[in-house]
Specification:
By secondary structure, the chain is mainly α. The protein has one domain. The chain is built from ten helices and no strands. Helix 1 crosses helix 8, helix 4 runs parallel beside helix 6 and helix 7 runs antiparallel to helix 8. It starts with a helix and ends with a helix.
Length: 259
């Protein structure tokens, strides 16, 4: 067992439990750049590990009543088949998409992280009032349609890159739907569990996950995600949204090779 790999799992697990984000966008680059694992193996390993990890996070947040199951299921309607198709495309159709796609994703995540931070802390007259943060509300037909479309697009990207089960879907949850920050985290984790299960199955069938790496990462990540989930309900709304913004930006900078 590699203690460094277990420690990386602990750190990423804490972030996932707290914010719902970071498993794919942080762990995959760490596996490639820090531990020297080939990209295709890193993607497959991360998808299998993320599915197991997020099952624990989703269960914990469901206990804490932080989950909007209706929204998660609408999003999964599009994302689950799209993610499975993405893994098939990665291993059977395309060449190395990781040569260019991580840069595109990284730029997007940094921009969204900045936008979420501004929305949380800065008042812009006529546009945003930082004293009135989004709160929980009913889903409209427009919300449900958006959820399915978003699921298809980002689910496919998840299957290709292992990035998106948290950060991309979390990005849309925090900006487009009537959810408090706690509901963003819990809903994101439930949906992420569903979509990574589909992508993980595709990886097992078509790809090359390393189950030894998966086991080592889980040793750290499972306690990490349970600890992080506990602190979600203890943080003020603004601090939690600020944490989400920070993870988005951190994920993007990592993909861009900033550190």
């Amino acid at each position: 067992m590699d203690p460094g790999l277990a420690a990386a799992g602990l750190g990423v697990g804490l972030l996932v439990g707290l914010t719902g984000m970071g498993a794919g966008s942080l762990m995959t680059p760490i596996l490639i750049t820090v531990f020297g694992i080939p990209a295709s193996t890193a993607v497959g390993t991360d998808l299998v590990y993320a599915a197991i990890t997020k099952a624990f996070g989703a269960a914990r947040h469901h206990q804490l009543k932080n989950v909007n199951r209706e929204l998660a299921l609408w999003m999964a309607t599009g994302s689950v088949p799209a993610a499975f198709a993405g893994t098939y495309t990665l291993y059977n159709v395309l060449g190395d998409v990781n040569a260019w796609l991580p840069d595109v994703i990284g730029i997007t995540l940094v921009a969204v992280g900045i936008a979420v931070a501004i929305r949380t802390f800065v008042t812009i007259r006529g546009l945003w009032d930082a004293s009135k943060l989004p709160s929980d509300g009913a889903l409209t037909t427009r919300h449900k349609t958006m959820a399915v479309i978003i699921g298809v697009v980002f689910g496919f990207i998840l299957g290709l890159t292992s990035v998106g089960s948290g950060v991309f879907f979390g990005m849309t949850l925090v900006t487009l739907f009537p959810l408090s920050a706690r509901r963003v985290v819990g809903t994101d984790l439930l949906h992420a569990f569903l979509v990574t299960m589909a992508a993980g199955l595709g990886t097992v069938l078509f790809g090359v996950p390393n189950y030894g790496y998966v086991g080592t990462i889980l040793i750290g990540s499972i306690p990490g995600i349970l600890i992080g989930s506990h602190f979600t309900n203890l943080l003020p709304e603004r601090a939690l949204r600020g944490s989400i913004a920070g993870v988005l930006a951190l994920s993007g900078m990592k993909l861009l090779g900033a550190f």
